[in-house]
Amino acid sequence: MENTLTNSDIYTDSGNLSPRKITVGCKDKNKFIPRFMIGVLLLAVVSLVYLNIDWLKIAGRIPQIGTVFFKLAHFDFGNIGLIGSAILETVSIAVLSLLYSLVLGIVFGMLAARNITKIKWFSVATQSFFTFLRAVPTPIWVLLMLVCLGMGPEAGVAGLCVHTTAFFTKSFAQSFESISDETLEALEVTGTGRLSVFTNAVIPAAFSQIIAWTGMRLETNFSECAILGMVGAGGVGFVISRNLQNYQYGTAGLAILFVFIIAYLIERLFVAIKKKIQ
User: Fold this and answer.
1) What is d(CA 136, CA 209) in angstroms, rounded to the nearest whole number?
2) CA of 87: how far to CAs of 91, 141, 207, 260, in Å?
3) pLDDT in tens, 65-124
4) Is the pTM of this model over 0.90?
5) Which residues pair with 17 in a beta bridge?
């Protein structure tokens, strides 16, 4: 590790800049960065060779991308009622899965936080279990729920809840662990119960972070709902998929536009809420 810079390293006695050579940072880290970049480059090359991508075929079909987007931009308002009901269904799935997961995430986040549980092996076991749930992509959980519950929005809500709860558990546990142990110990010394400390001290201290995580996850849930509808979980994704398959680009383009607008409004809403809280 190199020494930190001092004024004598930079300035001469006259106060002018010195032409001395100055080394900044850590040599080990400076060596690691190019090695890392070379490793990423090699991995990319190996991936391209393994996938055997036909670049000539892609180049030949690039003009079709513009054609498809041009057709999508010719909005067809004939099925606006169907699109509106599908959007409402998608928002309902995203909100329901978020609310259920929010409650479960706070509970399991409390159990996963080391400074709250005070039982190291239990918090590690809880984190490991939800890491496994989080490692499985949301579409897989939704497909499993489709097998169990059948086609419809119920499978979408249940599948999203699994992955969203695992996400909240990790995020909230990190937020709770950011609170100093000294603060918690000072409250416990006064005779305050652990549950009371959590509800009256930990939750208020981490509230702004909880809002931030919630807003980000609602955006993600809404976007995933638009995709999951294509596999039978209901919502606007089914409308987009069906109309694209039937070459009804105007209806599909209008539905995609509504997805963009709703996602943007969700983002701005939670930005405003967070600013108001702060």
Assistant:
1) 25
2) 6, 22, 30, 11
3) 888 888 888 888 888 888 888 888 888 888 899 999 999 999 999 888 888 887 888 888
4) no
5) 11
